[in-house]
Protein 1
Amino acid sequence: MTLQAGASREVDVAVIGSGPAGLTAAIYAARADLKPVVLEGEPSSTSDQPGGQLMLTTDVENFPGFPEGVMGPELMRRFRDQAVRFGAEIHTLKASRVDFSTRPHSIWVGDPAAAAPTLRAAAVIVSTGAQSIMLGLDREVDLIGHGLSTCATCDGFFFRDQHIAVVGGGDSAMEEATFLTRFASKVTVIHRRDSLRASKIMQQRAFRNERIDFMWNSVVEQYLGDSALAGLRVRNVETGATSVLGVTGCFIAIGHRPNTDLFDGQLPMKENGYLLTEPNSAATAAEGVFACGDVQDDFYRQAITAAGTGCMAAIEAERYLERLH
Ligand code: NAP
């Protein structure tokens, strides 16, 4: 079926977002015969492309069930095929506006100023994910999975006995750097100031670790290497001097941003912008609206935990609809 702007098509379940959380929710909702309609996003940018962050990943070796590992895009293709197999209707479209004050809930695609919404959904599952904040340098997207990474838990293993860099000075950077010393011969933390933002305990752990050294007052200016990262051009912001750091891996740990702009004024958020859900539940404060995956998880941020919360959201939506009908 196609989706027509302004048609106000009534559906039981709409899923906004198509990473591991959204597609798991779609699989469960489809198998419950709720005929979910999924707005999977549009391949326009790195933030809200269909499939989410795994589309920017190469080898995934920690997703259970794939002992030999699996490429991120291939894993997401399998999630998607499984959802389609059970009847999920997936559209390569983006939601442009939502109104959760009405019931059924309204979702617009295309012109957000249109009088009538595209969909009216009895239950909505929000799974728009999050994105790692990046440095914005040339070739950044191309090098992800080829020496450049945003997840030490996922990719640290590939850098055994290599010299790698971590960019950032917060808790994430210290955690990543410390974790990476399990594999790397040396980890250089590149931080733009002369003191860390990280909590004292995380700082001390990193300072004590003999495999970690620090480049203070320094910013990465350029990624070196052709098809894979072969080094970084680093500039000292105090002196202006540039140098080349010969690393084969670089982990960017300067924070994450949840994709929640669409829900501003519609759903309560934590101070850091992540959606608030009830404890041990995917329920948001808006009745019939459930949130799952990285858009509401600022702690684990793993594909497997996202999939788990997607399952929770679908089961809760199903029970909500049972009560409603
Ligand atoms: P964060 O606290 O916001 O730190 C981001 C770091 O990246 C800062 O040091 C910042 O530098 C630097 N940075 C930001 N933009 C940059 C840019 N464009 N270029 C270079 N450097 C840049 O983010 P986070 O470390 O991801 O932590 C987020 C939250 O999660 C925090 O509340 C943290 O405590 C929490 N967290 C906790 C744990 C834990 O307890 N185990 C682990 C991870 C995260 P400046 O310092 O100069 O601003």
Protein 2
Amino acid sequence: METLAGLTVQEFEELCAADDLERWRARPILQWIHRRGATSFEGMTDLSKETRAALAAKHRIFSTTVRERRASPDGTTKLLIGLEDGDVVETVLIPEADRRTICISTQVGCPVRCRFCASGLNGLRRNLGAAEIAEQVLHVKRELEPHLTSVVVMGIGEPLLNYANLTKALRIMKASWGMGIGYNRITLSTVGVLDKIDRLVEDGVTPNLAISLHAPNDEIRREIVPTMAKVRVIDLIKAGRAYKEATRKNVTFEYVLLDGVNDDRKHALELGKKVRGTKMKVNVIPYNRVEETGFRAPSKERLDRFVEALGGCGVPIMVRKQKGDEVSAACGQLRARWTEPVPTEHA
Ligand code: SAH
């Protein structure tokens, strides 16, 4: 049985032909799924009863289900997505002024294990399939917010270590037969898998890019992202620059601010020297609490001093607002399991 939410139109056309259905049917059926919110073949009311029955006998639309919803007082809502094998991942809807952003996961757990992040605490269990990635967007559009403005691939997992499934899901999101969310409305966050950043350009899958830098030099980065010790800070900055030149998309550097680790004025100046002149922005993310990691968020004074010093170097900066902390849905707090008591009332 195929899951239609994870197919390209070409793949589905092949299936239709093999099933003695006209190939031209593939496109409107996928649009029913990606644009018109169909959750069953029964609901595709412009298809004949026979066609609907034939499709339902052979295929399904989704492979995942929404197991729970948790709403935070700040408007952020987290969905627990149940996978077929019993595992779960998290998806977050973040409303902010007139923007509606969804944050999606790409792996169950994460092999990178940044020392400040909850997602890798238990390592990697497995990659998500293309359908499992795309369906997160469909669930949010159906249940919470039909008018999504942007997608950020910043949930659980390292997207570029699940390259084939990720890029397929991004193509489904962008396509005219799919969700119609252009690459300029999608931002992919990566710890910096350099060869795969190049591949994105070669393959023409070019969302905005956020590179998780987190340190002004290799010594500090090695301490907090030990599994990526071979990747140099300078090469990450170069990769960002090359991607921006090749694609004209936004490229930002993410910098999780950890008290006493990477938040000194001298760190800001060292970073400023390396990033200044590249026209790329630094997105400063004050550390969100993850019990097991032992890090602390910097004080307001240290945050301000860091931002001021970096800004003084002529680097454009954004400080990411904390959202979703009340339901552990803020950056770095997502896990491949539901840690809080299951709520009795749905959001
Ligand atoms: N694996 C990808 C995407 C997932 S995380 C990546 O590394 O970029 C999205 C962002 O949240 C990353 O920049 C990540 O470093 C950051 N993050 C992780 N743990 C955090 C924490 N405890 N507080 C704040 N940000 C965190």
